[in-house]
Design brief:
It is built from six helices and no strands. It is an all-alpha fold. The relative contact order is 0.05.
């Protein structure tokens, strides 16, 4: 076919980049930064919503997995649409109910009232003593 041995770079149908040394991942990202930016724009909103739902549902295991594992939004989308519970509160936020706070008890020091209470107890004790004396006298008179 041709006048010499066929090499990879000599065939006009093969691209010129094919004969060069392959790029490593760092070189690829350095020359194609738009892919990294596009992946971030796609992933960050999905991850944010999924983490918010996991925290709201108090699902610690899902929160940790979604925080650590990066699947370019695939795991986040699966969690949002398949595993997260959509509660009625999420659909229509309800106003916060006001709790009734009981009135604090008023503590009043009534010194005059305390004096009256002491007088009442003293009067009661004196009355009881008189009744005991009377009952003792009645017993003595009935014996004698």
């Amino acid at each position: 076919m041709g006048s010499g041995p066929m090499t990879l770079g000599s065939n006009p149908s093969t691209p010129a980049n094919f004969s060069k040394k392959p790029m490593n991942f760092a070189q690829f990202l350095a020359t194609h930064t738009w892919i990294l930016i596009l992946a971030a724009i796609w992933t960050i909103p999905w991850k944010g919503v999924a983490l918010w739902r996991a925290a709201r549902n108090r699902s610690v295991a899902w929160f940790v997995v979604l925080l650590i594992v990066n699947t370019l939004g695939i795991l986040e989308i699966i969690y949002i649409f398949a595993f997260s519970k959509k509660t009625e509160e999420e659909e229509a936020p309800q106003p916060i109910e006001e709790q009734e706070i009981p009135e604090p008890e008023k503590i009043v020091l009534d010194i005059k009232g305390e004096e009256k209470a002491e007088e009442k107890t003293e009067a009661k004790e004196e009355k009881e003593r008189k009744e005991e004396e009377k009952s003792d006298l009645d017993e003595e008179t009935s014996k004698g």
